[in-house]
Design a protein that fits this description.
Radius of gyration: 26 Å
Number of helices: 7
Distance between the termini: 17 Å
Number of strands: 10
Order of helices and strands: HHHHHHHEEEEEEEEEE
Helix content: 25-40%
Strand content: 15-25%
Amino acid sequence: MGQPDQVNAGAELSTVLRQWWQGEEVVLKQDSVVGKLRSHGIEITQATLSRYLDPAKPSIAREEVVRALHAIFQRPPEDLALALGLWARATTERTARNRTPETPPAEPGPALAPPLAPGRPARGRRHGLAAAALVLLGAGALWLAAPWESARHSDDDAPAAATRSAGALAVCEGEACTGLEPNYTVCRNDAVTAFVDADTVIGVELRYSPRCKAAWARISQTHPGDIARITDLEGRTQKRAQISGHTAHSWMLPAAHPRDVTACAVLAARTICANIPTSAAR
């Protein structure tokens, strides 16, 4: 519980914008989208737009572009709020990555010892150098033993740190959680796996937050292009395509109980759903 699903705000924003674009009944060519953006007073090239719409190598879209695309594709108001939230987090993360610490002022070094008189033995100086070397070796050993080995962190650790640095987690409950990213809400803190699938390779989990009364689908051992989808009893659906790696998760849907929703992995040739309850589903 409390482990966030893999997420990157820049890639998430690109995914949202790409879904707006490809979700149209008639998908416009990118040069047509560029023309519509220019009609909104936004100067942009097709190459730049292509980078904004590529989750694999995302370039963070300008805020004015996000707002204009929302209007062009006539998305609901909550989609704009979600996109602007991702934009804010993505720009914050980018700023944090680009920020370099200021160089601290140089501290005065130790006073230089007077030169040795001719014929004076250098034993004292040799002892001093040996002691300094021992101190440096000891400091190096402590550094190697420090528990800061980022290579050992799991894939879930980095998104957690990024989310914390980007600001406080949002609070929602029930309908207010519809379409939100679970990792940016308190829902991730008490999330449990309520249902799993029976497939021996593909993993499908129904993730449920009792506090938020909301759920989402998480899939694993899948490939880019596969879709994590969650559907409620009324047929409402939230889904998201996998961008990279081998895991993905959907946006959230409200659910009074885990039994009120179904989590599935939509693959190229089949659909696998989580229908085996765990103890958390009781």
